[in-house]
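Our preliminary data section would be incomplete without showing what the modeling component actually yields. Below, a chain of 175 amino acids is followed by its predicted structure, encoded as tokens that our downstream tools consume directly.
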Amino acid sequence: MTDGTVAPAEGTTSKSELLANLEQEGEIAADYLEALLDIADLDGDIDMDVEGDRASVSIIGEAPGAQRSLQRLVGQDGEVLEALQELTRLAVHRETGERSRLMLDIAGFRADKRAELTTLGEQAAKDVKESGEPVRLRPMTPFERKVVHDAVAASGLRSESEGEEPQRRVVVLPA
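Predicted structure:
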């Protein structure tokens, strides 16, 4: 390049290209989810964002009763939400040809779960620091384990996952 900037190495993606790709994922996901809401005759506003290295899409109910009706899309313990996230990722993959790590939240379920799991990870780290013994947590989904691992790392300890799905769990280890 003649302006003194260095071009990304062949096969790599610049930050602006990565951001544009993630924004495109969000737009594809939003279109897919908008159609789903129309088919299901549900009201919800769609919010798109990029968090770290992944697209994030949220469906929020603003109208009275909308949050409650969106709970059907969350399901028990987020089971329906997980399935919708996978379907949305497949829709993005179909359009882009690239694997998506898009994160979907509906009615604030994941945000609330993230706060709860962060507290769980911090408490487990505290218990390990006090006892010096590893703490094994209940089996969790990949999303839940990631949040706990991040909270444990922020507390200055390390953790690892053990077991096979669906019984995979986080183990918090002493320093």
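The CA atoms of residues 44 and 116 lie 24 Å apart. The two ends are 48 Å apart (CA to CA). Preliminary results of this kind motivate Aim 1 of the renewal.
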